[in-house]
Amino acid sequence: MVVSGPSGVGKSSVIDSVIERTGSRFSVSATTRQMRDGEIDGEDYHFVGEARFEELVAGGEFLEWAEYGGNRYGTLRTEVLACLNRGQHVILDIENDGAHQVKTTFPAAVLVFIVPPSLGELERRLRSRGDTSEADIAKRLAVVEEQIRDAESFYDHLVVNSQLDNAISRVVLILQEPIPTGSGIDALPEGGGTETRSNSP
Ligand code: 5GP
Fold first, then answer.
1. Which of 87, 102, 137 is the last residue of a domain?
2. 70 and 161 housed in the same domain
3. Residue nearest to ligand 1 atom 3, measured at CA
4. How many folded domains does the chain comprise?
5. pTM passes above 0.85
6. Ligand 1 atom 23: residue of nearest CA
């Protein structure tokens, strides 16, 4: 499952609770951005330098990668394939470009976009976090409408986060929906990573 949404929408809270309730795994991405206070290397992200990120790209280690806000972010094949091979759901917190790439590689991936109740409410939440400058808030809000338009045309589900508990329950239900047969889960790509796929139970 891919979960996307604008910053400040409460995506991390939704993902953390869904993981807790369903025993799914979080796919820890690699990124070139600086670690923020409170973040843990290997848990929130694998924090890497530009050169290492370039090596991972060249080595075909990413299922997808994209540039966002001047930094690069990528989903490691090993993070995802190891879970799928164990029959476990895996949740990716990635932006829209990456979601498009994942859906192309894994047509069975379910794409969920978390929508704020309104742009005004999103602005209020971003400001109340206190860790985002006014310039950054303006930059982030400028792309939100575009992200939502893209999500409406491409994502499988849009979930409005006006009540956190309701949003979490909705995503849990979506995750528990059976994967339709012939939807592409058989087309798990091999190679690039160290994992191979087995269909045995
Ligand atoms: P932040 O820097 O605030 O943690 O994340 C910025 C954006 O990058 C968020 O929208 C997040 O979903 C996205 N992101 C995080 N990891 C990845 C990844 O591996 N691939 C892509 N495409 N986007 C990611």
1. 87
2. no
3. 7
4. 2
5. yes
6. 94
CATH of residue 93: 3.40.50.300
* Ligand 1 centre distance from Cα of residue 199 (Å): 31
Reduced to 3 states, what is the DSSP secondary structure of residue 176?
Answer: helix
Structure confidence by residue, pLDDT tens digits, 22-81: 999 999 999 999 999 899 999 999 999 999 999 999 999 999 999 998 899 999 999 999
**pLDDT tens-digit readout, 94-153:** 999 999 999 999 999 999 999 999 999 999 998 998 878 898 888 889 899 999 999 999
b/e burial code for range 134-159 (CB count within 10 A of at least 16 → b): eeebeebbebbeebbebbeeebebeb
